[in-house]
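Reposting from the mailing list since nobody answered there.

I have sequence plus structure tokens for a pair of proteins and want to know whether others read the tokens the same way I do. The first protein:
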Amino acid sequence: MSSLSALNGPRIKVGARDGQAYETIGVNRLTPLIGAEISGVSLGGPISNRQMDEIHRALAEHLVIFFRDQHMSQEQHLDFGRQFGELHLHPAAPHEPGHPELMIIKADENSVRANGEGWHSDVSCDLEPPMGSILYIRECPPDGGDTLFASMYGAYDALSDRMKAYLEGLTAEHSGEHVYRGMFAKEGVADKASYPRAEHPVIRTHPVTGRKALYVNRGFTTRILGVPRDESDGILAWLYQHMENPLFQCRFRWKPNSVAFWDNRCAQHRAMWDYWPNRRYGNRVTVKGERPV
């Protein structure tokens, strides 16, 4: 099934424009497949058109990009997100007062859970799932709290040709019901009558890069449609194990005032909650996306 040896061959593409120099920002790659730290830009200050173009390019090439030592107000955080599109409203999570687009990311000694503990792509249960998420962490625990990111381009490219042929054209159901109902009750958020549900292709084509990526995840995907339930369960279990291979991953160690910006269309992530009872606090701005094809 898996062709992990393909990681050293032509199936794994680092990026269509890989190798071209950046002129206005610094880009330090974390791994060959995913992740880069960006320097030379202040997200809370004026950003030139050329810098913004290169940030767009870095996100497309590296799937997730990181910024250190940033100082943004809530309004500046929202404004930066709007440079990439209309902002998305989370269907369940608590938000900052007066800013429904500004999701609260918090865990402390009173928490029973932390945001994003399992592998997922944000709100993939929406009919038009988010394009990207911009997480700004102001407070960090002294140790732990890393976030892992995985390339779904890499996971797709490493599949055997037979598995690619099997998955091509299949559709999967994504549901928010089992994820969100009761999740934020401790934060005072009442449940809604219903939560989003959508059907998306198992393999999606990125609208910017044109590359194919796996688009199922442990968090929201409930079944593959058009095949028996036991077959769906078996294929999904194998795909999840395959996608979570460390060869496709990078790991980000947070420091106060750091920012991570990831592309939900081609990357999944998992937050490590290994710092209880310490506190972690920040905000996430999410950019609307399009219906997967």
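The second protein, same order (residues first, tokens after):
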Amino acid sequence: MTTTTTGSSTAATDDFAAEWEKWHHAREQALGAPGGWLSINRLEWLDTEPGRFDGLPGSWWYDGSVAHVAPGDGETFEPRDFELHPTGPGEVVDLDGHHIEVARRGDGYLIRVHDDSAPTLLDFRGVPAYPADPAWAIEARFEPYAEPESVTVGAVAEGLAHVYVSPGVLVIERDGVEHRLTAFNGKDGGLSVLFTDETSGVTTYAANRTLAIDASGEVVREGGAVVLDFNRAVNLPCAFIDFATCPLPPAGNHLPFAVEAGEKIPYERG
């Protein structure tokens, strides 16, 4: 009986590791794809008056919630307007041979230049990570707020703040102690959490890591059990490039123990 149990446990661990390897490989493939975060090699903030940036087409400015670009002499593209969400994805446009992402952050707008010859993309060799360990797939309890709350957090870009919607908190237990983490709405109706821990700045990126959490709509509304698989904790773009405006974790989202799981400091930052 003992042999059977051990064999089953080993097989389950092997299956867990194989699933993680498949996920990790897909994650690295997505990061290294042309046109992604690693291709960004420049960031410029727009002003409220039209202005040009050396080597880039167009005059750029914003007023209120809308950004604008207009062609100059000899430039062939049509004028464009952009009205984007302050924490949402940017919009990439091709202007006279340049791939330029427009994004709204805080009270203003920025542009970022994508270049598939950027060193961060050409030199990318994957993301170091801790070996997969089922022990770091931890069951937690989600406690929803009566009404979702707006939470303001800082950013790696000095002077910038982000505002996100939090539906509630995640409660995990470690060595008999409860820890509460503010959760944000995630993709596909799930949850996400920004956090640091005792590995931050040592073996993992100092500012933040993020974790996506599968949760049904019923759990998000009513609360209940979820699994925090820290093996899938990932770096945000700011861990790889200097042209990101990533959010910092909310106050209190520091775990006072070492989460030795998930992605480590990128090779290029080591």
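Reply #1 (J.P.):
I read it the same way you do. The chain has two domains: 37-122, 125-269.
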